[in-house]
Amino acid sequence: MAVGALFVDTKGAEKLEEYTKGGQEANGQETFKSGFAALVGRPNVGKSTLMNQIIGQKIAITSNKPQTTRNRIQTVYTSKAGQIVFLDTPGIHKAKNKLGEYMVHVAERTLREADVILWLVEPTTYIGAGEQHILTQLKNGKVPVILVINKVDMVKKEELFAVIDTYRKEMDFAEIVPVSAFQGKNIETLIQCIFQYLSDGPAFYDEDTVTDQPMRQIAAELIREKALRILEDEIPHGIAVTIEQMKERKNGSIMDIEATVICERESHKGIIIGKKGAMLKKIGSQARYELEQMLEMQVNLQIWVKVRKEWRDSELLLKNYGYLKKEESEF
Predict the structure, then answer these.
(1) Whole-prediction pTM value?
(2) Residue 226 and residue 246: Cα distance in Å, rounded?
(3) 179 and 190 Cβ atoms separated by less than 8 Å
(4) How far is residue 173 from each of residues 9, 16, 177, 273, 317, measured CA to CA in Å?
(5) Strand locations in the chain, DSSP E?
(6) CB-based burial label for 237 (10 Å; 0-12, 13-18, 19+)
(7) SS3 content of the chain, % helix, strand, coil (to 5)
(8) Which of 5, 251, 264, 269 is placed for a possible disulfide with 238 were both Cys, Cβ 3.0 to 4.6 Å?
């Protein structure tokens, strides 16, 4: 096991030098590797931020609230060395409803399908119940695990050594790589480490592909992100966003988008709309700006709010809102 860290020993430095040669065999022939890398971890450890940083553009939404990612989001990184298909999963947690069960099911299934697993943790020596639960699953699996210690910009180097030692005692990791997803620190080292555990093979996607997510889904998630950041703490867990219409005008200068925010209570609907519509206007304004940056065109965004009581426990509504696929209806 090597530590592909911000600081490495001599052996680690030699291995890192080998990594950065990517795409070359010992005999000088070019190679191309491809495979799947799953990102797992407790909610809010920075999985979506890391993936967005690697891809170089925003695909997965981020916020400081748990359960931000609800579906498995697939993104693609392509370079001369090869292609990595990242599977950003919902955070593994104790499920409280059918939506929670679905999220955990998706995350756990992804562990079995990947070629390599990236386990993201925060830089602390305390391994809580959530991490222990993930650790048990990783130990029982056969897929190599890279421990990614995120948010290293928040701790001193000597504190990071203690974190590494703590986790080293729990499991024999393939690699340990400290990073700062927010600052983009040590990301290239992580990418090269991942390639070490992929096989030679062709690309799964065209080199210009960055995600398998439909544009409507990305638009819905961007709107939900703004709601997550703006609304009160007790509301975001119970909201979903659907795109009713997304149509480009004939002259190609404006995209008309009609969206609906789904909530579980009438009281929540009032908070989302706000006094004289101020809260909904703020959500729409921030979402529209980001959608225009992404689509590179003017966006006419209209948002409505509807109440669907206990939708997170309804299989029918979960399917309607895109969270429960047919093949995943049995947990």
Answers:
(1) 0.61
(2) 18
(3) yes
(4) 17, 17, 10, 48, 40
(5) 2-3, 33-40, 73-79, 82-88, 116-121, 145-149, 175-178, 199-200, 240-248, 254-263, 298-307
(6) middle
(7) 40, 25, 40
(8) 264
Q: How far apart are CA 107 and CA 47, in angstroms?
A: 12
Predicted pLDDT at 39:
87
Per-residue pLDDT, 134: 85
Q: Distances in Å between the alpha carbon of 35 and those of 15, 45, 79?
A: 21, 23, 13
Single-letter amino acid code for the residue at 315: E
Question: Are the C-beta atoms of 124 and 48 separated by less than 8 Å?
Answer: no
Tell me which DSSP letter residue 201 carries.
-
Backbone angles phi and psi of 38, in degrees to 5: -95, 135
Note the pLDDT of residue 66: 44
* Cβ(108)–Cβ(38) below 8 Å: no
CA end-to-end distance (rounded Å), the chain: 35
Q: Between 248 and 30, where is the model more confident?
A: 248
* pLDDT tens profile 151-182: 999 999 889 999 999 999 999 999 999 999 98
pLDDT at residue 97 in the model: 59
Q: What is the sign, positive or negative, of the torsion defined by CA atoms of 94, 100, 106, 107?
A: negative
Q: How many CA atoms lie within 13 A of 198 on its CB side?
A: 27
> Within 10 Å of residue 83's Cβ, how many Cβ atoms?
22
Banded pLDDT at 41 (limits 50, 70, 90): confident
Q: pLDDT grade, residue 87 (50/70/90)? A: confident
- Calpha distance 105→16 (Å, rounded): 35
pLDDT at 213 over 70: no
